[in-house]
Amino acid sequence: MKDSLSRMRNGGENLRDGPHHVESGISSVQLCWIEVRSDLDTDADELPLINQFQINRMLPKRRNQHIAGRRCITDLIRKRGLNPSLGKLNLTSDGLRFTCEDDTEFAVSIAHSETLAVAALFDGGKRIGIDCEPLNRDISDGALQEFCTPEEIQVLLNESHSMRLHYWMVKEAVGKATGEGMAASRRIRVASNEATLDLIQYSIRSIPEPIMNHQVVIATLHSDSP
C-alpha cells in the first residue's frame, strides 16, 4: 500500500481518476477513496444510491463531497459483485447498511472532507464506521467542550494536536458505526486502539499511510475483529 500511495503522490497515477482501492488492514474490510473535485456533479444523474431531491438542495461544495462518497461506496459494492442499482442504503442502529434486493445486508460507511472522500464495506461484519480528516486539522477548545466529557477535556487541553485529532476521529467513526453520529460523542470512551460505547467495545484501526494528507480511522465491533 505504501508504494501505491507514493506513486499517486508522485504523479505515477492520476489522482483525478475514479476511486482508488487501498488495504484497510482489517480482514474482510474493503476501503477506497477519491479526490473531491468540482466536476463530480456531472456524474450525479447516472450514479446509483443518490437521492436527486436531496442532492439538488445541497450547496455545490456539499454536493460534490456527497457525490464523491457515493462514487466510492458504489465502487465497493460493484467490486463485491453486487449491483448497487438493485439495492439501497439505510441508516440503522447498526450504522449505514447496503441492502440488496434479496434483503442481504452489508455494513458500510462513508466519510469526506473538503478534498477527500472515503468509504468502507465490511463483508460479514455487523458494524463499521470511518472518518477522514486533514492531518493539520485543529480541534478547538470549543469543539472539545461540545463533544468530550469533562474528564476528557481536562486531559486533552494539555495534549498534542495529534491526540486531540485522534479522539475526535474515533468518536466520529464509532458514532457512524452505531448510526447515532456525534450525538453519542460524550458517551464514547476513547483509548489508543479501542473505544467503548454503552459497554460495547470497538476496535480502532488507523490506516498507516496518509491519503492526500489525510488520516483515516476505522471502527469495528471488537467481536467482529480478527
Q: Report helical residue fraction.
A: 25-40%
Percent of residues in β-strands: 25-35%
> Can you say what the CATH homologous superfamily is?
4'-phosphopantetheinyl transferase domain
Order of helices and strands: HEEHHEEEEEHHHEEEE
Which regions contain 5 or more consecutive residues with pLDDT less than 50?
A: 1-15
Shape: globular
Structural domain tally: 1
Number of helices: 6
CATH-defined topology: Ribosomal Protein L22, Chain A
Q: Kindly state the mean pLDDT as a whole number?
A: 89
Strand arrangement, major sheet:
1-2-6-5-4-3
Topology diagram in text:
Layout: H1 2-9, E1 20-23, E2 29-35, H2 52-56, H3 60-79, E3 88-92, E4 95-99, E5 105-112, E6 116-122, E7 128-134, H4 141-147, H5 150-156, H6 161-178, E8 188-190, E9 194-197, E10 200-206, E11 214-221
Antiparallel strand pairs: 1-2, 2-6, 3-4, 4-5, 5-6, 7-11, 8-9, 9-10, 10-11
What does this molecule look like?
The protein has about 230 residues and is an alpha+beta fold. The protein has 6 helices and 11 strands. The protein is globular.
Task: Summarize this structure as a short list of keywords or feature phrases.
single chain; alpha+beta; globular; Ribosomal Protein L22, Chain A; six-stranded antiparallel β-sheet; 6 helices; five-stranded antiparallel β-sheet; 226 residues
Offer a quick outline of the entry.
By secondary structure, the chain is an alpha+beta fold.
